[in-house]
Every structure is written in structure tokens, then in C-alpha cells.
Design a protein that fits this description.
heterodimer; A: about 325 residues; mainly alpha; Formate dehydrogenase/DMSO reductase fold; 11 helices; about 70% helix; globular; B: about 250 residues; alpha+beta; Alpha-Beta Plaits; two-stranded antiparallel ribbon; 8 helices
Chain lengths: ~325, ~250
């Protein structure tokens, strides 16, 4: 599948934003961070800015962005529509939580309610994003049970790195967040490693013979193409990444997105000087950003759509 | 509304005969011509006179080599929307622009509400939907909904443009939900098949397989094809061999 930059930026930026929102809301509800106006303003501000940037970027993928509001109507059948509804709905509890946090006019149980609803809405949005891909039987690498859980785990892993950077910058206690980074990055790593093993070993069940229904007459090989230049279908669905590049990129993604943050989390469990902590957290954030962009690019580039069978034959 | 109708009154669709299709692309070009000014207009092309010309077409004709050796054959394979009974291209649509008509089962895109998110094209295993880069919306076969009910047309023209154009009569149009219809009879007679039924979208269109060879067995290629003649070494042959060499320089 063509790795469209608008969709890569959207899913990674808003994923990190929802992860940060989940981390901040949970920390506020559990009393792990002080209900400080500036921290709340910047923390939730960064989270909502990332989410909003992602959502706006996603409209660049549309041919008719001015009609984007129509996408909220078909939540009964469409995961894309559900994602849009959940994304908009998240602003309500997140906004209320932010208002209470910044202006200090909320009672503890109201903070807990705002935080709980924010977490629930953020999880729902992430799950819908994953299901957009996981629900398509036409793309073997996406039609996997691990795809939606991985979208959630990636958001938690990337969001917790941003969270610890903010905690370090404010000089707040951050050991709990270091533990959260280690746990979420390890979870995401395990899921992603299993996913890569699953798509590598999954049987290629569709063939040019089954796609054309001509298998009873023997093997089916393309003779004359239907057109001389690639059309939309080939441009969008025919993208292929070389296998050896994919292996290399998987290693880079695993190193930057999982190994480096886990190491940073382990270092931040120690009693280090504040500037060192900030430097470690900042390096982890840069590494995570490059890592998650690589991972998401691969998620598209490695996915093969079965329509390519009509064009190049073989199996998919 | 992108939820599917419980059932449709008719199942209008195409039956395509892979035995008689000669791969002339007349169905594709007449489709493009009709739909560039019909329901799904515009149907734009990009860089039409440049180095990378491409555009949205609703019908594509592949040619395959099928089988091996003396048993092999060329099969021309038109590919367009199959107007599935349970198509995910409709249910994934976030706006309701993609829909399946309850009255006749035709799958359409409303060009006024499509946002061009392209998700429907990802959901289609048949590559039936093509994005119009200029209009910013998705295009697909309309089964010529603007011809088949058009009472200003002569009755014989109230069929899809591709069916009307086919010079060998390889394309048939009708109600595949009615077992007594001509197309249903044809499918039964010729053992018509659906594409990728295992995906579960329940395509309506059917393809008729190539017929077996008339004499029941394949020709012995080695016996029937005369070996290329070599020159006899006569003076004339030597002259032509020399001329051939000289002219080739």
C-alpha cells in the first residue's frame, strides 16, 4: 500500500497525543502529579495540539476536505466514521479536565470523572483507528487480530515518552512514568514482534488463479496489461518495498522505538541530576519519533493488496 | 446511508463470456466515453499528452496466458465492479456517499457527498474503484444507471454502454436475481462463476468460462506446425541470403 505521508503523520501524531492524554489523565486521577495550572495547561495543551494536528493532517488525505464533516454520519457501519466521532467526543471530557486542572475549580471526584472519560474516549479512538485497517480482508498484513492492540500500545509507548519529558522539565517525580515507559514499550515490542512473525508466516491464500477463477485451466500469467501507464489502483495499492529494506527498517524501528526508550526508562529510574534526566528524556523522545514514523511507514509499505494479483499474477 | 439494504428487489449485473471476448477494449472505451459525460462525470485524465498519462476508467481489460504448453490459451478478462450483494466498499464509507440501491442492487457513489478518503478502494478486492485525482472523488461502474432506465432511448439502447459496444456479444446485462431471466439461464447453462467468493462480498456479476476445444483434444503442435523452411542451397537462395545480410548492415 502507498505510504501516504498525511496518514502516517496523522496516526503517529494523534496516537502520541492520545497516549499523552491517557497518561496525564490517569496520573491526575491517581494523584501522581500535582494539579498545577501551568503543568496542566502545557501537558493537556501539547496532547490536544498533537491530536488536532493529526486530525487536520488527515484531511490532507481527502480529495474533498471541505466535506470532511460528513464523515461523522455513518458510525453504524464504518470504523472510519466511528473514529471521527470518538475523536471529536474526546475533546469534551479532555477539555473539561483541562478547564478544571488549569483553573483549579474541580473537586477530586470531578477530576477523576473527567480523567476517566478522557481515558475511555482516547482508548475508543485508538481502537477505531486500528480497526479501520484490521477490518479489511483485502490486505493480509492488516487483517490481523494484533493490528488494533498494536495501535493502542504504540500510542501508550510514544505518549509516555512525551509525558516523562514534561515531568523532567518541571522537576516532578518521574519514577512511576519511567516504569510506565518500560512497561508500554516492552508491551508494544512484544506485540509488534509477534505481528511481524505472523505476517511473515501467514499463508498467501490468494492467487491469480483464484482471483480470475481460471485456475481449472492451469496457471494464470499476465500477458498484456490493460493499460500502459500505472493507474490509481496500481499507484495506491501496488506499492512494494524490497524485502531486505523491510528487514533493515524493522531493526531500525525496533531499536529507536522500543530499545532506546526502555533503556532511557531504566536510566530514569536512577537518581540522576535534573539536567541529565531532561537530556535523557529528550533523546528518548527524538528516538521514539523517528522510530514510530519508520514503523508506521513500514506498516503501509509492507502491506500487499490482493488486487495486485490481476496485474502481476502470483500469490498475495 | 452506508448500511446495506436487507435485500434488493432485483440483482442487476453483467455476465461476461471469457470464451468469446476478443480483448478489443471496445467496452472500456465506450464506458469511458459514456461516463465522461454521464452520472459519474467528470471522469478526468491526468497528463493526457505527457510522459505519464493516466486517468479514471471504470472498466479494464486484462489478457492472460492460461495453462501450459499445447494446453495453453489466451484469455481476455474484462474487470469492473461486480455490484456485490454485501460489499464492504459500501459499509466502510464514512459519509454515506457509497450506497447500494434497494430497488435494483446497483452500487453507486454520490459524487456530491464523497470526500475522497479512498477507503472504499482499499476494501475492494477487484480494483473496481478508481480515484479521480482532479475531481477528488471516487469513481466506479454505475451499470449505466443513466441509460438503462432512460425512456428517451430506443429499447435496444437501454443497456450499459459496454454491453452495447461489444462486437462479439460477450457481455450480457440483466437481472441475476430472477432465475428465469436470460442472464440467469446463461449462467446456469455455461456454469458461470463469481470472482473470489471466499472474500464473502457475494458478487452479482458472473463470468462464463472458456469452452472446451471443439474436437475435445488439444492439437499436437509439433505435428501440425511445419518446421521453418531452410534454403535448398540453390543459387537463388544464396543470392537472397547475401541480399538479406547486405541489407541488414
Amino acid at each position: 500500500m502507498n505510504p501516504a505521508y498525511s496518514v502516517i503523520v496523522f496516526t503517529t501524531a494523534s496516537g502520541a497525543g492520545y497516549g499523552l492524554l491517557i497518561g496525564l489523565a490517569a496520573a491526575a486521577a491517581l494523584g501522581l502529579v500535582p494539579i498545577d495550572a501551568l503543568f496542566g495547561f502545557l501537558g493537556l495543551g501539547v496532547a490536544l495540539a498533537l491530536i488536532t494536528t493529526g486530525l487536520l493532517t488527515s484531511t490532507f488525505h481527502l480529495g474533498r476536505p471541505e466535506r470532511a464533516w460528513r464523515a461523522l454520519s455513518q458510525w453504524r457501519s464504518s470504523w472510519l466514521s466511528r473514529e471521527g466521532v470518538a475523536a471529536i467526543a474526546t475533546y469534551v471530557p479532555a477539555g473539561a479536565l483541562g478547564f478544571g486542572w488549569v483553573f483549579g475549580e474541580m473537586l477530586p471526584h470531578q477530576i477523576a470523572a473527567g480523567a476517566g472519560l478522557s481515558v475511555a474516549c482516547a482508548f475508543a479512538t485508538l481502537w477505531c483507528t486500528g480497526m479501520i485497517y484490521a477490518s479489511l480482508p483485502t490486505i493480509r498484513a492488516w487483517h490481523q487480530p494484533l493490528v488494533a492492540p498494536i495501535y493502542v500500545a504504540m500510542a501508550l509507548a510514544t505518549g509516555s515518552v512525551l509525558l516523562i519529558l514534561m515531568l523532567a522539565a518541571f522537576g516532578y517525580p518521574l519514577r512511576w512514568a519511567a516504569a510506565a515507559i518500560i512497561a508500554s514499550a516492552a508491551l508494544a515490542w512484544i506485540l509488534k514482534a509477534r505481528y511481524w512473525a505472523a505476517i511473515d508466516s501467514a499463508e498467501k491464500t490468494y492467487t491469480a488463479e483464484s482471483a480470475t477463477g481460471l485456475g481449472r485451466f492451469g496457471t494464470v500469467r499476465p500477458l498484456d496489461p490493460p493499460h500502459t501507464q500505472p493507474n490509481y489502483v496500481m499507484r495506491e495499492m501496488g506499492y512494494q518495498v524490497a524485502r531486505r529494506h523491510a528487514v533493515k527498517l524493522r531493526r531500525i524501528a525496533a531499536l529507536l522505538l522500543f530499545a532506546v526508550p526502555i533503556l532511557a526508562g531504566a536510566l530514569l529510574l536512577l537518581n540522576l541530576a535534573a539536567p541529565v534526566q531532561i537530556a535523557i528524556a529528550a533523546l528518548a523522545a527524538v528516538s521514539t519519533a523517528v522510530g514510530v514514523l519508520t514503523e508506521r511507514w513500514l506498516f503501509f509499505a509492507e502491506a500487499e493488496h490482493i488486487v495486485v494479483l490481476y496485474y502481476r499474477g502470483g500469490t498475495a | 446511508m452506508t448500511s446495506l439494504p436487507e435485500q434488493t428487489q432485483k440483482k442487476l449485473g453483467l455476465v461476461i463470456d471469457l470464451d468469446t471476448c476478443v480483448g478489443c477494449h471496445a467496452c472500456a472505451t465506450s464506458c469511458k466515453e459514456w461516463n465522461a459525460s454521464g452520472y459519474s462525470a467528470p471522469l478526468t485524465d491526468q497528463d493526457a499528452h505527457g510522459a505519464d498519462p493516466h486517468g479514471a476508467w471504470l472498466n479494464r481489460i486484462h489478457s492472460y496466458e492460461v495453462g501450459d504448453g499445447a494446453e495453453s490459451r489466451t484469455v481476455h478478462f474484462p474487470r469492473s465492479c461486480l455490484h456485490c450483494e454485501t460489499p464492504a466498499c459500501v459499509t466502510v464509507c464514512p459519509t454515506g456517499a457509497s450506497y447500494k440501491r434497494a430497488e435494483d442492487g446497483i452500487v453507486l457513489v454520490n459524487p456530491d457527498t464523497c470526500i475522497g478518503c479512498k477507503l472504499c478502494s482499499w476494501a475492494c478486492p477487484y480494483g473496481a474503484r478508481e480515484y479521480d485525482y482532479e475531481d477528488g472523488t471516487m469513481k466506479k461502474c454505475t451499470l449505466c444507471v443513466d441509460r438503462i432506465y432512460n425512456e428517451t432511448f430506443a429499447p435496444e439502447d437501454r443497456i450499459p454502454a459496454c454491453v452495447r459496444a461489444c462486437p462479439t456479444g460477450a457481455r450480457h446485462f440483466g437481472d441475476l436475481g430472477d432465475p428465469s431471466s436470460a442472464v440467469s439461464q446463461l449462467v446456469q447453462e455455461r456454469e458461470g462463476f463469481a470472482l473470489l467468493p471466499e472474500i464473502g462480498y457475494r458478487p452479482v456479476n458472473r463470468y462464463l468460462p472458456p469452452r472446451p476445444r471443439r474436437d475435445g483434444h488439444s492439437p499436437d503442435v509439433a505435428a501440425t506446425v511445419a518446421p521453418p523452411t531452410r534454403g535448398t542451397g540453390s543459387l537463388a537462395d544464396q543470392f537472397f541470403a547475401w541480399a538479406d545480410k547486405a541489407l541488414a548492415r
